[in-house]
Amino acid sequence: MPQSPLRIAMVVPPFYELPPRGYGGIEVVVAKLIDALVDRGHEVTMIGAGRNGTKARFRRTYSEPQAERLGEPLPEAVHAAAAAEILDHLHVDVVHDHTLLGPLQARGRATPTVATVHGPVIGEPGTYYRRLGDTAHLVAISEAQRGFAPDLAWAGTVHNAVDPADLDFRAQKEDWVLFLGRCTPDKGMHLAIDAAREAGRGIKLAAKCSEPSEKAYFEQEIRPRLGAGVEWLGEIGGQDKRDALAAARCLLFPLQWEEPFGMVMVEALASGTPVVTMPRGAAPEIVTDGVTGLIRDRLEDLPAALDAVGDIDPFRCRQEVVDRFTPQVMAARYEEVYRDVTGRTATHRAPGARTRTPVAAGMRPVTATDKTMAAAARQSAVEHARGSARPVRLTLEQQA
């Protein structure tokens, strides 16, 4: 028997538009998810900043995305407060939140909240999600990420996705390797340069380098390594990015941290480009060693891998994405999560009773006074933003 369409509120970060015009990993994924959910017949309302380039209905919190203020706490706090106000007037079956602060609002809602954890869960981030208790249903983006905090309130694991049609496929590769990512030590760009030089192969570096920490890493580790055979491309997008991914002999991605996912690896595979990486985080879930790339335990083994990777079949790389990492696969799996959590919420409601948010162990129920105070806090945040030195315009009207 066909299931009824779901009404989904999708809360996205306020820093980039969807889809983003340049950098924006989370935003690319969520834009694809929204469109795939709409194609499956669901009603999706996105709450975000700037323009709407998706198939969803749209409610805006900021008239312009707050990319220049990335890293500051107030933009996301104001966004969370405004999103909560919008949600008070939306009739939806489930809220899907992709922000850091948004899940804090779940405790005061009867509608279940699904929160995708896009970052690490080790250390303080894990403590934060534990404090949420069972008020938000968490979704991991890899089994590796979930494994680092198995005690959290996980509702499922859903891999991120790319649309293979958005990437150019090339079976014939050029004889240079590509590094594509952020300009941070944990991505291992300096190690990629060293491995390529040791192998006698040229390397092109495409990386976001705009934040102070990224610029400091570039000056300390990357600039001294530039020279013959090492080409700095900077941040690239659009056709330039597609051309680089399709032409490279391989993507060299010597991870130095437990990457929760690693979208660039999937983008490379969709382009028919194998991946040479290390067994950190989700890399072994994405790359099949010896089939779609090479995974090496030791840095000293990377140069030889850059020679051996020529034996990997580009067609097999792309097929792996078609089978496992498309927006359609992602949307189907999220729909399973939505139906599971909405079903659980309905099961726990007594017939005819007023709905209320489940209360985590050790937490007191939400009272009318709490809701009044929360509304006052949201209004205070808005007024603070309007009176700040860098004012923002908050508009809550629905956009066409």
Automatic annotation (TrEMBL):
CDD domains: GT4_AviGT4-like. Residues 172-297 form the Glycosyl transferase family domain. Gene3D superfamilies: Glycogen Phosphorylase B (3.40.50.2000). InterPro entries: Glyco_trans_1 (IPR001296), Glyco_trans_4-like_N (IPR028098). Residues 23-146 form the Glycosyltransferase subfamily 4-like N-terminal domain. One of its GO terms (molecular function) is glycosyltransferase activity. Keywords: Glycosyltransferase, Transferase. This is Glycosyltransferase involved in cell wall biosynthesis. It comes from Georgenia soli. The lineage of its organism: Bacteria, Bacillati, Actinomycetota, Actinomycetes, Micrococcales.
